[in-house]
Putative RDD family membrane protein YckC
Amino acid sequence: MNDAISDSNPALPGSAGVLRRVMAMVYDLLPMMAIGVVVTFAFLPFLNGRRFIPAEVGALAYLHRGLVLAAAAGFFIYFWTTRGQTIGMMAWRLRVQRADGSLIDWKQGAARVLSVMALWVPFFVGNALFWGHWTDRTARGLAIAASLLPVVFAYAWIWIDRDRLAWHDRWTDTRVTVLPKRKK
């Protein structure tokens, strides 16, 4: 379904389609990378020239990963609860809100972040523990594709949901809407 067509469906005013959501996510990669860089710089004095992998720095690598995830989660929760929009969402005129149009609270923001992270667990855990070491490219490619199915299904659900909500929208009683264009 074309995103421009689906976003203008009069039966579902303002519901955000898949394409807009994905493009906002792409835009949000830049601040996510910046957050990762800032957290990583804080850890550099403790590395002493070693690579940032558990085999060389032990628990420090896991602490780093946890802090990067926590900082990223904080970014989303902060923007969703104070503005309803991340930087990428501002560019694509999207807003996370409750059904009544009000801003979500920090509990809904945290639940939303955790539910989205849960969709990615098969990919990251599978890569770290299993197929990250496989040499057979075909098997590895199939495993990666299969591990991404929860993410794909969660967003593809928008096309069949009567309210055009993704799984994590439903789970957290939130929705992503398209804001009207600003008048010049």
About this structure: The first strand starts at residue 94 and ends at 97. Residues 18-43 form the longest helix (26 residues).
